């Protein structure tokens, strides 16, 4: 009988060091990645009932952007941040799976075109009075 003998690994928990055997599941786990607030994903599988936004539209925190039906309940998906809709990746009636990308947002600064020069129009009062201009 051959046994799978694994070497002892150093493991730190609450600032205490231990020597232990680590499981394959623990060794191959995915490292934690913080969620990107600009990517709105489905938290539960379901059907997209209604999309309440479109590309180019500004959204603010608390604004409902779509309704997702899951387990006979209508879940209102709301924006947590201020942003502009870059792209809607689903359509009404689509069946979506968990963690599927629904809507992609961008920061408002990224969406602004280059600033245009403002045209200033002066009224009669703001014109300089000259001898050539009898109205002013």
Summarize the structure.
The protein is built from two helices and ten strands; from the N terminus they run ββαββββββββα. The chain is mostly beta strands and 136 residues long. The longest helix is centred in the N-terminal third of the chain and has 4 residues, at 24-27.
Which regions contain 5 or more consecutive residues with pLDDT less than 50?
none
Query: In which order are the strands of the major sheet placed?
Result: 3-10-8-5
The CATH superfamily of the domain at 35-108 bears the name RNA polymerase II/Efflux pump adaptor protein, barrel-sandwich hybrid domain
Indicate the CATH class of the domain at 35-108: Mainly Beta
Number of helices: 2
- What is the subunit organization of this protein? single chain
Order of helices and strands: EEHEEEEEEEEH
Helical proportion?
under 10%
Shape: elongated
Structural class: mainly beta
Strand content: 35-45%
First-last Cα distance: 108 Å
The Cα radius of gyration reads 29 Å
Strand count, sense and barrel status of the largest sheet are:
4 strands, antiparallel
Give me the count of strands. Answer: 10
Task: Give the overall average pLDDT.
Answer: 83
Using the coordinates shown, work out and report the CATH topology of the domain at 35-108: OB fold (Dihydrolipoamide Acetyltransferase, E2P)
Q: Which CATH-level-2 architecture of the domain at 35-108?
A: Beta Barrel
């Amino acid at each position: 009988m051959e046994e799978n003998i694994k070497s002892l690994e150093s493991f730190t928990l609450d600032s205490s060091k231990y020597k232990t055997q680590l499981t394959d599941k623990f060794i191959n786990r995915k490292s934690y990645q913080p969620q990107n607030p600009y990517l709105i994903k489905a938290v539960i599988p379901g059907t997209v009932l209604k999309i309440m936004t479109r590309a180019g539209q500004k959204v603010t925190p608390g604004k409902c952007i779509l309704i997702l039906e899951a387990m006979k309940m209508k879940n209102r998906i709301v924006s947590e941040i201020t942003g502009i809709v870059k792209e809607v990746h689903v359509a009404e009636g689509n069946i979506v799976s968990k963690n599927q990308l629904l809507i992609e947002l961008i920061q408002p600064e990224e969406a602004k075109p280059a600033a245009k020069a403002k045209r200033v129009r002066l009224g009669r009062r703001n014109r300089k009075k000259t001898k050539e201009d009898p109205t002013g």
